[in-house]
Amino acid sequence: MTAWLRSPLLERHGFAHAFTTRQGGVSVAPFDAFNLARNVGDDPEAVAENHRRLADALGYARLFELSQVHGRVVREIGAREAPEDVRREEGDALVARTAGVAVAVRVADCIPLLLADPETGAVAAVHAGWRGVEARIAEAALATLGAGPSSRRGHPPTDPSRVLAAIGPHIRLGHFEVGPEVADRLEAVAHGVACADRTMEKPHVDLTAILRAQLRALGVVHVDDVGGCTYAERARFFSFRRDGAASGRQVGVIVARGATDAAGGAA
After folding, report:
1. Model-level pTM greater than 0.85?
2. What DSSP element (H or E) covers 125?
3. Cα–Cα distance between 182 and 15 in angstroms, integer?
4. Which domain holds residue 240?
5. Strand pairing of 123-128 and 111-116?
6. Residue 73 falls inside a structural domain
7. Distance, CA of 161 to CA of 73 (rounded, Å)
8. Is residue 260 domain-resident?
9. Per-residue pLDDT tens for 15-67?
10. Which residues on neighbouring strands pair with residue 19, listed in sequence order?
11. Is 56 within the bounds of a domain?
12. CATH number for the domain including 122?
């Protein structure tokens, strides 16, 4: 049985999505069992089978990913593009508007953030490590989706107050130890929210609190956190900080839907 987490907020509005765990796949140790990364040394056939299971469960035919680099580049997916070509490009967020097209980001401690516009059916998947949070990757993704302060032209504007945001499992405050200079840099983009615990030998930072503050400052009011600490929960999640090169990857994945396909219900 493949296990993953879902956002009640996204489910209520009819968006197929998942935050996967390490459970339910066919990969063997140290990538056991539901590793979805193709570049960590896992058996390619096992990774392909894990992807097939995810696609069958969520009902998509094409999944788009990027070569992630901890920046703020956002890639919008065209209706006729090939996933294999897009995977070779560098970036950290994807936007899809074509119904049935899925976008995903790979994580093993960073935050997987899923965004959705319930009126248009457009979606975004965002890879937000601490460098991405510092670079305000969520702001860039919202702009491409059509809801940010620098929204791109060519699509109907999206009111940020109707955007749905779901935060997936990632390393949490109790385990995210950083140097004082990194804590300072992250506090500078936290909109005044308390996000650093400096009572220990090294500061610990709450990336969730920072990302929530950034979304709120952008006008996003519907935010769902599905929980889970990748570092602390060894049986459920991969963690690069805990396991290094022996770590596989989870994904946060969401499928664009038609503008009239909503399941209904207020956010």
Report:
1. yes
2. strand 123-128
3. 35
4. 4-255
5. antiparallel
6. yes
7. 23
8. no
9. 999 999 999 999 999 999 999 999 999 999 999 999 999 999 999 999 999 99
10. 5, 252
11. yes
12. 3.60.140.10
